[in-house]
Specification:
The structure is a single chain. About 35% of the residues lie in helices and about 10% in strands. The protein is an alpha/beta fold. Helix 3 crosses helix 4. The protein is globular, with a radius of gyration of 32 Å.
């Protein structure tokens, strides 16, 4: 930074013994002016030749709301949350949540509570939309929210891990209302949810499902698929995770991350 002189401009020297010729003083002033000009030009040259500044960072990821399945706890989603944060997602945009019944009640009621949570997260973060990362029974509540409530314009991506999208033959849990709703492909709840499309508002929402051949809760394996999804990802072989481990499996989480980033500008 250049600082201005504290001596008032144009103030003459009061020293009576200064007999320096006027011409000498003028030459000295001219030399100083030339030196200052050269210094300023050099500074300008350095500034113009400096390396370009990096472009402003792109807008942050949409908040991710991670929702466990029937009887699950939000702690079930901690591995997913930690994985996203380790890979660059801001902590304040990662939310674990479940409804007041832990997905054991009517899933339409769970969807209503999800609607309120989405609005709370959007209001807190300032984001227009959220990503819903769902598991098991919550995959259905989230789709109900998108289809029947106000989720179409508030959700950017839907990710369903091991969801009983078309029911499950492992349905010995029907003391829970939610289990009754996905006990078979022909329950009134699923028939209404899956008609006329399994991916409501897919013109504005991207859909990914992740399923595993080692899952013995959501069976048969392909029950977790959604017709019309952007991607239905199948995990198979000796390292395929079971129903409980799929939401903490490194390969499954890597697939989720790559899908989110690939579709963020859709």
């Amino acid at each position: 930074m250049l600082f201005a002189s504290t001596t008032p401009r144009g103030t003459a020297s009061t020293r009576t013994g200064d007999r320096r010729p006027v011409r000498s003083r003028r030459l000295l002033s001219a030399s100083l002016a030339a030196l200052l000009t050269t210094s300023l030009l050099g500074l300008a040259s350095q500034t113009s030749s400096a390396a370009p500044q990096p472009a402003p960072a792109a807008a942050g990821h949409d908040p991710v709301i991670m929702i466990p399945g029937m009887t699950g706890s939000t702690s079930n989603m901690n591995a997913m949350k930690s994985n996203l944060q380790t890979n660059g997602w801001p902590a304040d945009r990662l939310v674990t949540w479940t409804d007041s019944s832990s997905m054991t009640q009517d899933l339409a009621k769970a969807a209503q509570q999800l609607s309120a949570k989405v609005d709370e997260v959007r209001g807190r973060t300032g984001a227009d939309k959220v990503v819903l990362a769902t598991w098991s029974a919550s995959t259905l509540a989230a789709r109900y929210y998108i289809k029947n409530l106000d989720g179409a314009d508030k959700v950017s991506q839907y990710i369903g891990f091991a969801g009983p999208q078309h029911g499950t033959t492992n349905n010995g849990c029907q003391w829970y209302v939610s289990c009754q709703q996905f006990a078979s492909p022909n329950t009134p709840f699923l028939k209404a949810l899956n008609s006329p499309t399994e991916v409501p508002f897919n013109d504005r929402i991207d859909y990914l499902t992740i399923r595993s051949t080692a899952d013995y809760n959501a069976v048969p394996t392909d029950t977790a698929m959604l017709a019309g999804a952007d991607e239905n990802y199948l995990m198979s072989g000796p390292t395929a995770p079971n129903h409980l481990m799929i939401v903490s499996n490194a390969a499954a989480l890597a697939k989720m991350r790559s899908f989110i980033t690939a579709h963020e500008n859709d």
